Write the structure tokens for this entry.
Amino acid sequence: MSKIRYAMNGACGRMGQRIIALGHEDHGLSLVAALDSGKHPAFGKDAGELAGVGKLEIPITSELPFDQHPEVVIDFSTPEGSMEILKTCVARKIPLVVATTGHSAEQKREIEAAAHATALLLSPSMSLVVNLLFKLVQQASQALMGKGFDVEIIERHHRMKKDSPSGTAMQFARIIQETMGQSKIVHGREGIVGERPLDEIGMHAIRGGDNVGEHTIMFSALGETMELIHKGYSRDSYARGALLAAKFLAGKPAGRYTMYDVLGL
């Protein structure tokens, strides 16, 4: 069986390196290009050596070489990096998995529009369990809607994380708002803020150490509380999810896909 050829955008980052390392172990995948900013200190180095799997004869480049024809690209970079590779994938009709977070509303609209030209999968989290939790939170919201439940979201991440709150936490909030109808999101509380209204979602971002990622969604009413929790212990869960998404997306026709499609939900 032939291997699926993929390119990694954001190859110098922690997630990019881990995806390359795990992809190297996967007999169904073959890395053909590794991309990152020309300003990165590791620019020009061998992607395999950088990822700790030995020389692959694939240098880090800033653009996808014309002589390489990946069947899918994984983007785990920066919002600016996403927009650059998006142009290439649209022009060359290459399926794209966007795992980067922190995009502006305008950038998200541009990414969504690209689905008219090529297969596109955009998700705030590549974790399979997190995406299953999205579905469970939706079901809980539907069941508890209008029954006097307050909703709070607590997310914890490592000190290096640039965006806050996490894209995953915001996706949980959107799911809940669409179902339960809360009108606003409150980011932390300070001072005399008065009694908590039902039409808000409390959002709390914690940063410290090397925490890979935790999300707690709390539904609380008078007399009882339910918490739905995901804890990430290794970046490998996100890397493996991204690789699985890439396998799914390769060869798909133009259109918008989600991790629900990957999971068969």
The chain is about 35% helix and 25% strand. The domain at 128-232 is CATH 3.30.360.10 (Dihydrodipicolinate Reductase; domain 2). The longest helix spans residues 128-144.
